[in-house]
Design brief:
By secondary structure, the chain is of the alpha/beta class. Helix content is 35%, strand content 22%.
Amino acid sequence: MSEDRPYEGKELEVFAQARNWKAYWSGKIRPHLGKSVLEVGAGLGTNTPFLLGPEQEAWLCLEPDGALAARIPETLAGSPWRGKVKSRAGILRDLSANELFDTILYIDVLEHIDDDLGEMRAAAAHLMPKGKIVVLSPAQPWLFTEFDRALGHYRRYTSGSLRACTPAGATLVEIYALDSCGLLTSVANKLVLHQSMPSPKQIAFWDNCLVPVSRWTDPLIGFSLGKSLIGVWQKSG
């Protein structure tokens, strides 16, 4: 039986309302999903409905906090594909060696793990041949604030530092930035607000006003600048 690992962050329910943002990044990630998916650090399961579709045959939500893992079925109650999803309390090393997946997801999770390269190596061992690891992570280390500390982040990434997490036996397929306009909110917090947690009104402004603009500006600048990064790796066949 795995050890319960309570999550100390308080942002999950606040960011659950950021539907425009979730729709944006999930649209970029969904084409990389295979038939069997492992979602590491699934939290309340609020990201899963934006990704899970008829193409998936099996989906495992793995969450270290047992109390959060227990709430995932409730979160997915409205999904027509909820029957494909299993939730389990634990971390990657709790899986048996023969549990393999087509895709392993780290959605705002890798920055919470001290040994990120070690985690990526372990993830690669649980991939099927040609399987993919997909990471969404906060970008711009110079924007590291009290908000990051409050969430238990070890770091924010650059393209180079995320690229350095490439595990042996896998190839980096793509890496790019999202949410160029969202940088404004992070800069404001860094220089002026110094908040450890944004308010629901601030989240709503960012999600409803800035994210839609980022959808337009990000392609114009070649997805070169943003407050988040997406990285995709593929295991050798």
